[in-house]
Design a protein that fits this description.
The chain has 2 domains: 142 residues, 3-Layer(aba) Sandwich (Rossmann fold), CATH 3.40.50; 165 residues, Alpha-Beta Complex (L-2-Hydroxyisocaproate Dehydrogenase, Chain A, domain 2), CATH 3.90.110.10. The model has no long low-confidence stretch (mean pLDDT 96). The chain is globular. The longest helix is centred in the last third of the chain and has 20 residues. The strands form 4 sheets. Strands 3-2-1-4-5-6 form a 6-stranded parallel beta sheet, with helices on both faces. It is of the alpha/beta class. The chain is built from 10 helices and 14 strands.
């Protein structure tokens, strides 16, 4: 049986751990946080739902004791500061980079074979940092952002079309940022038929725009970052890995020429299985989409350049 660790017991981390426990993806889920008693309290609260909801996963909360995470198969990193109203993901880089690097270093002491799912923002840059700092094979470092952005895309498509989001297929690629993500409206389908058959250009443009500011919209409404959809998106990535489902999910991974980019982690459709991400799917972008992807890469690369000033 598998063991999964979630680092960071805030709203996103706790929701992710709760989803994983309820799905019984692992024999043990460890929730770790730096705040004394916080992860223990969250884990105990979750476990008190087991008898009501009918799940039987061992759930352990710990305060900064990485030895309890030993032999984890998958580690989800959610730790770091959440966004506040008016704050961009990019502004978080100075604080969260040090946190993410420390977490990766500590996890690898006890779980050298773990696959990492990065949720902390700015997600593409944190994924790149985790890869470079760890020296791990590229397939074992996965940024979650595209899974969340694609879910938001399908949410707004379903509202515009008044159909079930479960009947929609749509992907968001590029950076996990308000100005860098690319909802692929041309390729979105409803039960196999293009959504362009049902929505006019103005409506599709609005759907794409709403998707791009989906996180910021919730931050403005809630006063902090969202957690239900990020927790569910994290679950979807972990589940495809643990169950070797071979699902195609947009994720931030290291590119070496794919989509015209190299030495960068950026959102592209990948097959997820037991070894991490297994291959990148080529969506054959048109010229306009490829130009947007290149522009997105430039913006993410500028954020990555900040890492060189932090002496990490």
């Amino acid at each position: 049986m598998s063991k999964i660790t979630v680092v960071g017991a805030g709203a996103v981390g706790a929701t992710t751990a709760d989803n994983i426990a309820r799905k019984e993806l692992a024999s043990e889920v460890v929730l770790l946080d730096i705040k004394e008693g916080f992860a223990e309290g969250k884990a105990l609260d979750m476990f008190q739902t087991a008898a009501i909801l009918g799940w039987d996963t061992k759930l352990t909360g710990v305060t900064n004791d990485y030895s309890k995470t030993a032999n984890s198969d998958v580690v989800v990193i959610t730790s770091g500061l959440p966004r506040k109203p008016g704050m961009t993901r990019e502004e978080l880089i100075g604080v969260n980079a040090g946190i993410v690097k420390s977490v990766v270093d500590n996890i690898l002491k006890y779980s050298p074979d773990a696959i990492f799912v990065i949720v902390s923002n700015p997600m593409d840059t944190m994924t790149y940092l985790a890869l470079k700092a760890s020296g791990l094979p590229k397939n074992r470092i996965i940024g979650m952002g595209g899974a969340l952005d694609s879910a938001r895309f399908k949410c707004y498509l379903s509202l515009a079309m008044n159909v079930s989001p479960n009947d929609l297929h749509g992907s968001v690629i590029g950076g996990h940022g308000d100005t860098t993500m690319i909802p692929l409206t041309r390729l979105a389908t409803w039960n196999g038929t293009p959504v362009t058959d049902y929505l006019d250009e103005a409506t599709l443009t609005k759907v794409a725009a709403d998707t791009m500011v989906g996180g910021a919209t919730l931050t403005g409404l809630l006063g902090t970052s969202a957690w239900y959809a990020p927790g569910a998106a994290s679950l979807s990535v972990v589940e495809s890995i643990i169950r070797d489902e071979k699902r195609v999910i947009p994720c931030s991974v290291f590119l070496e020429g794919e989509y015209g980019q190299s030495d960068i982690c950026l959102g592209v459709p990948v097959v997820l299985g037991k070894t991490g991400w297994e291959k990148i799917i080529d969506y054959k972008l048109n010229d306009a989409e490829q130009a947007l992807f290149a522009k997105s890469a430039d913006a993410v690369r500028n954020m990555n350049n900040v890492l060189t000033t932090l002496n990490l």
